[in-house]
Amino acid sequence: MLSRRAALMIGAGLAAAPALVRNAQAQEEAIVPVAAPSDLSGLTRIKRELVAPPQVHEHEQVAPGGPRIVEFEMRIQEKEIQVADDAWLQAMTFNGSVPGPMMIVHEGDYVELTLKNPPTNMMQHNIDFHAATGGLGGGALTLINPGEMTVLRFKATRAGVFTYHCAPGGPMIPWHVVSGMSGTIMVLPREGLKDQFGKSVAYDKVVYIGETDFYIPKDETGAYKRFADVGESYPDTLEVMNRLIPSHVVFNGRVGALTGDNALTARVGERVLFVHNQANRDTRPHLIGGHGDLVWEHGKFHNPPAVDQETWFIRGGSSGAALYRFLQPGLYAYVNHNLIEAVNLGATAHVKVEGDWNNDLMEQVTAPTPYDADLELRTALP
């Protein structure tokens, strides 16, 4: 008799069987040696420890020398996460966070990722780097079952911020992505960022925001359903997904992940680089009370940045970056400017900025005070 876990694995596998067979064939063909291994023995190796969003790992803005091999390790975790006060999701994650952690290298470096799929997981997983060249972005070379690991290396040949996501084949692809399996890699130019005039520009901190659309089913009473594991959640979740109407649109995994006590912080005068990823749907970042001083809307750093933007557009399946120097203290809201998604579905972050107020930029000339509306109405009549 099959265990419940085995039955669920078979059910999920059958749903994607044709695509998984094709993907397995592509993987087998891709790993047949057709050239001698690259000799990178002369390059320096450096290991980076990944950290959970919105933070990013230690890095240099300007490359300290020639190309290096930058080593990362990520574990895939299938686990239940709380998306809102009344909603839970059987999530699939890179390193346990939604979005997955950001990786930062320089153009010309080699990214060497050790990817592990623990035996406690139920699903096959892989990783598709939009920054990589060949092999379905690495997806054809990294498809691993529970209890397996793999090592992928690719050369970062293009500068910018790029999406990565899980893409195990067929209907598993969108399900894994909207269940949390996406993230960003930032490939900096070796000389660092430049403004619209080609002049070097630096940032004081990076804020990493991953926007995700979730599709959580409801029961007959209208309450969000909870499931025992990721396999059990698939049929009902697929039905909601196919209607293309998300139940939640959130930053960094849940409603309120970057507001209240979790709000981001900055100081007047600091330059903050906002890196924004959306692996599935278009989005429109906007900083209420601020601007995009320099915006790489397409996320590619060799293109001159747009300047003085109010709202910018990030296509689904891509990442973008915006640099802003805060000029006033106060509470700023960073939102998806589809305000229904921002206010009603959760796509909002807050930035608490400390410093001195500048009345030249904004001043309350008259505080709110009562006035005689009846008198105004009478005098306004002919």
Automatic annotation (TrEMBL):
Compartments it resides in: Periplasm
Organism: Rubellimicrobium aerolatum
Cofactor binding: number and manner: Binds 1 Cu(+) ion.
InterPro entries registered for this protein in UniProt: Cu-oxidase-like_N (IPR011707), Cu-oxidase_2nd (IPR001117), Cupredoxin (IPR008972), NO2-reductase_Cu (IPR001287), TAT_signal (IPR006311)
Gene3D superfamilies, per the entry: Cupredoxins - blue copper proteins
Self-association and partners: Homotrimer.
This enzyme's EC code(s): 1.7.2.1
Protein name, entry field: Copper-containing nitrite reductase
Domain of life where this protein originates: Bacteria
Cofactor(s) essential for the protein: Cu(+); FAD; Cu(2+)
Ranges for domain Plastocyanin-like: 76-191, 207-356
Family indicated by similarity: Belongs to the multicopper oxidase family.
Keywords: Copper, FAD, Flavoprotein, Metal-binding, Nitrate assimilation, Oxidoreductase, Periplasm, Repeat, Signal
